[in-house]
Amino acid sequence: HIYTTGTLQSTCECTLTSSPQRIQRSHPIHKTCGQLSAAAIGCGRMICLRQPQTVVIVGGGPAGLSAAIRLKQLANNNQKELRVTLVEKASQIGLHTLSGACIETKALDELIPDWRDRSAPINTPVTSDVFRFLTEKASIKIPVLPGMPVYNHGNYVVRLGQVVEWLGAQAEELGVDIYPGIPAAEILYDESGNVCGIATNDVGIKKDGSPKDSFERGMELRAKCTVFAEGCHGSLAKQLYKKFNLRDKCEPQSYGIGLKEVWETDPALHKPGRVEHTVGWPLDKDTYGGSFLYHLNEPQPLIAVGFVIGLDYQNPYLSPFKEFQRFKLHPTVRPYFDSPAAKRIAYGARALNEGGFQSIPKLTFPGGCLVGDSPGFLNMPKIKGTHNAMKSAMIAADTVYEAFAADKLHIGYEPKEYEQNLRNSWVWKELKAARNVRPSFHTKAGLYGGLAYTGLFYVGLRGLEPWTLKHGPPDHTSLKPAKQCAPIEYPKPDGKVTFDLLSSVALTGTNHEGDQPAHLTLMDDSVPVATNLAVYDGPEGRFCPAGVYEFVADETSPPVFEV
User: Fold this and answer.
1) I need a surface site. Which of 133, 312, 329, 470 has the fewest CB within 10 A?
2) How far apart are CA 492 and CA 482, in angstroms?
C-alpha cells in the first residue's frame, strides 16, 4: 500500500489494524463530542511492517534533529543499517522555531565540527554586550564581565529557524526519514505497557469530532526506541510523566513565557552582533522577567526583541503581551522602533521551562527517553538552552546506538545509561552551577535579592555553594485573588511602536480551518467560570499570547468560556 497524507509518503508494506477505540477530543475532555474508531469509519490505522523503524523521534527542533544526526553518523561510520524516522508537526522544518537567538555552539562543534564549511547560517559573532537596569524613565548601565550570565563573548546571534532548517538538511543527507507536517498524536504501548512507537494524527475531522468526507486515519510508527523531543510542556511528554511517574523525585516545573518580535530598524542604529539585556521596569521587583534585543547580520538591518516573564507572577491583571508592548516605550529602546525606517515584520511566543536543575524529571522509561527542552535543560540566567538541548539528545543517541551495536535494542528497551551519562557531562555541570539563581528571586527582596545572589554565588563561586534552593509550590499557586490586586492600566497601542494582540497574531502566519477540533482541552470545563473568572477575574483572557481564550456573555445569559 502507498499511504499519503500531507507530505508523508510511505511505500512500505503496511497492514490495516483495528486498534482499540480512539477518541478524538475537543474541550472539555470529559464531554467528548465525537468518537471515531476503526469500526465507525470502516478502516484502521496503517502499520509499517516490512521495515519497522529502529528509532522514532518526535519533534524536529534542535534536539530531535541532533539525536537523528548523531544516530545516523554512528551507523554510517560503522556501516550499519539503522532506520531513523523523525516526525514534526510544522509543515516545514524550522517553521515553528522563533527567529532571533543568541546561541553557544559547543554542542554543534561536537556534532558537526565542520559546520562553518557546510554553510551553516551562523555568521554573526557577538561583538558587544549591554546590560541595563531600567526605571520608568531612566536606566543604569551595569558592566558586563566574564562569568556573568549575560556575557556572550564567543556566542553567535542567529535566526534559529534557519539553523534548524539547516540541521534538517544535514539529517536528510545522512539518511534520516523526516516527515514534516505530521504531528504525533498518540503514544503506542505493547501488551506489557512498554512504549513501542507513536501514532500520527487523523485528518479530516469536523469541529464536533465527526469525520468529514476527506477523513483519513493516522499511521502507526512502531519503534524499538522512541525519543521524545517535543519542547516545553509537550502533550505526549505529560502523558509519560503521569504513566511512568517520571516527576516523582523532582520539584514541579517552573514556567515562563517568552514573546518576541523581529523588526527592520534604522541602519544608523543597527550594530550586527550587539546583544542587549534589561531587568527592572516595566515589571515590579516581585515579578521575574526581563528583555533581550539582538542585532542580526542580514541584508536588511534586522533586530529581534523579546520579553520573558515568569509565570509565577502574583497579579491576575498582568498581561505578558502588554508588558512587552509597554517595554518598547522605554527611552533606551524606543528609538529602534519609532524611526521612519522601523517596521515590525514578525511576532511569536513560546513557553519556557525555567525550573532547571531542580525540576529535571527521570529521563527514561521502558521504550524510550526524553531529550531537549521537553524535560527542561534551559539555563535560565543565560536565557539559553539550545546547546544543552542538543547535547542531551546527542548523549541519548550515543546510548541508544551502543545498545543497537550490541544487539540489545528491542521493543521496550530503556536507555538507562543515558541519564547517568548526562550527569557526567558538561550539561549537568552547567545546570548545577546555575541552579539557585532562579529561586533566589523568591525572597522578600525579589529582583534585588536575586541580583545580589547571582553576583555573589553564580559569578563569584560558580554555583559551588553546598545548598540547593527550592522553587516552592507550582507557579499557579502564586496568583492572588483579584480582590487583593489593582487592575493594571496599559497604554493604548499606537500602531507604530506598540500593537494590539490580533494584529500581532496575524504576523505569525498561523492559520486554522474553522471546522476542526480545538487543539486545546480542558480537564474540567467548570473551572474557568466558577473559579478563574469568579476569583481571579479571568486571567486566561490576559496571559495567552495568541488570545485564544475568551469569556463570552450578554445581558440575558451567564458568562461562557470559549477556546
Assistant:
1) 470
2) 22
